């Protein structure tokens, strides 16, 4: 029995490993690599079976394929992958001076293949072609996309994942520079790295005036007192397709909404301007509160930038107090998004009479506050030294004159 279980486990493992194998193809021209692809691809094909019924079959692009019919050109290239009993899948690439992209994807399948299309009522060969929706990739960059992407086209659906792809390889070697698909860029899922709450220098903020400080509040209904208060000057830095862009939040056109945190529920502050929406989620735990999540979306024309992190612990203070940080503070939320706060004061829980309670200062402010006591201390020490020096000098002079001081 045990042995049987082991064998089953091994078989399952083997099946798992087989399933997760990707298909890798290389096309060469003059013995130099010019086209490369490594990907996982599932086809789902609906076809008519005997008895006027439809059946749908899902199968994976096998590892064992041919590249017959592929060619590399100066302006266009074709990757043609043949597999199984007469099926083929082809990508045609186009390039311009700076970029390349997939122009279209064409899939040809032979319904005669009864290992895949069981009981097919037709022996036809069919072809579907879809316009490539792949983003343009910089020349000499490899395109990578781990996320699942689905292409629908009538009776055929194609699902891709773990894709690496490079066309118009100039050098015979794959590029080390990758263009990562949008779907792989961090959105609301927390990145693996934890953020550093201390001020950092990356990304470089472009010179912008310091943002105006806004006062924001949230209440449960228009007649109730405020349950969340915030004062902050906010500057955003985000990576808009290629470059980091910086912008200030203008309090004059920014409204605050959100949720009151009570009975264990989180407190949320949502700031919304004409094109930016940024939300801050605070949680309470063990008589303290802290900032736990930040999500941002920025709409620029037809593009929307999203980023966030739901795994933060910043701005911690005791429940019933507010958190304050007058110094500029940079918070790196993700690889593509950071924000800077000025004159920050926030109280997400237990607001009484719609006004701030006493504040817990941030470390940066405390460092500042230490300077005064240190200066006073140093001045006192210097004073003591001067007095001591005067005493000893005076004493020596007196001795030299032969007096005995008491
Ligand atoms: C099979 O699918 C085709 C295309 O979607 C559709 O026109 C046809 O009515 C379907 N046949 C049956 C029996 O469902
Ligand atoms: C791909 O197809 C196989 C069956 O061939 C299936 O087991 C697997 O779940 C599919 N994966 C995706 C992501 O569609
Ligand atoms: C791959 O395909 C070739 C030719 O079709 C065949 O000879 C070979 O056995 C196949 N290999 C595997 C591992 O299926
Ligand atoms: C690929 O093409 C070459 C030459 O055109 C031919 O000799 C070879 O048999 C083809 N391979 C397959 C698997 O069709
Ligand atoms: C491609 O470019 C090379 C060098 O620029 C040139 O020699 C070759 O003729 C071009 N090939 C085609 C098909 O245009
Ligand atoms: C591409 O480069 C060629 C010659 O280098 C130039 O004539 C052409 O205008 C460029 N095209 C674009 C879209 O930049
Ligand atoms: C398909 O081909 C097979 C073998 O070539 C034949 O037996 C069958 O009748 C054909 N079916 C149709 C629908 O043409
Ligand atoms: C060309 O290949 C060499 C190594 O073979 C590499 O150092 C160089 O960066 C490559 N250049 C480009 C533009 O890919
Ligand atoms: C890769 O990117 C770096 C920085 O963007 C650039 O300096 C380098 O030339 C690129 N390499 C290739 C082969 O394009
Ligand atoms: C707010 O107060 C006004 C006037 O007192 C009243 O008419 C309205 O119903 C109240 N709204 C809510 C949500 O309590
Ligand atoms: C916001 O409005 C105030 C008063 O209405 C004005 O003084 C200030 O300049 C405005 N700030 C911005 C950034 O427009
Ligand atoms: C936005 O999309 C609309 C409709 O697709 C298009 O007409 C417009 O040119 C696009 N604007 C930009 C800035 O891409």
From TrEMBL:
Biological process terms in GO annotation: establishment of protein localization to organelle
Lysosome-associated membrane glycoprotein 2-like transmembrane domain residues: 372-403
Pfam family, one: Lamp2-like_luminal
Disulfide feature: 145-181, 325-362
Stretches with biased composition (Low complexity): 185-199
Start and end residues of each stretch annotated as Disordered: 185-210
Family, as annotated: Belongs to the LAMP family.
Protein name in UniProt: Lysosomal-associated membrane protein 2
């Amino acid at each position: 029995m045990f042995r049987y279980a082991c064998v089953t486990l091994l078989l399952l493992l083997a099946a798992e490993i087989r399933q997760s194998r990707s298909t890798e193809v290389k096309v060469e021209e003059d013995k130099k690599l010019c086209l490369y692809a490594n990907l996982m691809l599932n086809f789902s094909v609906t076809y008519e079976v005997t008895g006027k019924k439809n059946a749908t079959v899902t199968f994976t692009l096998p590892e064992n394929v041919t590249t017959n019919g592929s060619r590399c050109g100066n302006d266009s290239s074709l990757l043609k992958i043949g597999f199984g009993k007469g099926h083929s899948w082809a990508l045609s690439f186009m390039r311009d001076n700076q970029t390349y992209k997939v122009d279209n994807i064409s899939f040809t399948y032979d319904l005669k293949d009864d290992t895949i299309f069981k009981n097919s009522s037709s022996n036809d060969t069919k072809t579907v072609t879809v316009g490539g929706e792949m983003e343009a990739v910089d020349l000499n960059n490899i395109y990578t996309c781990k996320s699942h992407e689905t292409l629908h086209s009538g009776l055929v659906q194609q699902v891709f994942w773990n894709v690496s792809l490079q066309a118009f390889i100039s050098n015979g070697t794959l590029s080390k520079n990758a263009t990562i698909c949008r779907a792989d860029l961090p959105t609301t899922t927390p990145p693996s790295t934890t953020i550093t709450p201390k001020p950092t220098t990356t990304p470089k903020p472009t010179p912008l005036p310091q943002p105006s400080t806004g006062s924001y509040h949230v209440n449960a209904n228009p007649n109730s007192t405020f349950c969340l208060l915030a004062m902050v000057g906010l500057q955003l830095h985000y990576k808009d397709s290629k470059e980091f862009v910086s912008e200030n939040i203008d309090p004059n056109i920014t409204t605050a909404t959100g949720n009151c945190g009570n009975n264990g529920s989180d407190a949320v502050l949502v700031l919304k301007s004409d094109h930016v929406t940024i939300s801050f989620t605070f949680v309470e735990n063990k008589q303290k509160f802290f900032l736990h999540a930040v999500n941002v979306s920025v709409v620029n024309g037809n593009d929307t930038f999203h980023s966030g992190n739901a795994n933060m612990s910043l701005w911690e203070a005791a429940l019933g107090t507010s958190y304050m940080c007058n110094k500029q503070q940079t918070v790196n939320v993700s690889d593509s998004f950071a924000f800077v706060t000025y004159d920050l004061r926030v109280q997400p829980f237990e607001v009484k009479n719609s006004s701030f309670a006493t504040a817990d200062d941030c470390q940066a402010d405390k460092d500042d506050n230490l300077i005064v006591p240190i200066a006073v201390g140093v001045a006192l020490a210097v004073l003591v030294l001067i007095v001591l020096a005067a005493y000893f000098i005076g004493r020596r002079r007196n001795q030299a004159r032969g007096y005995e001081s008491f």
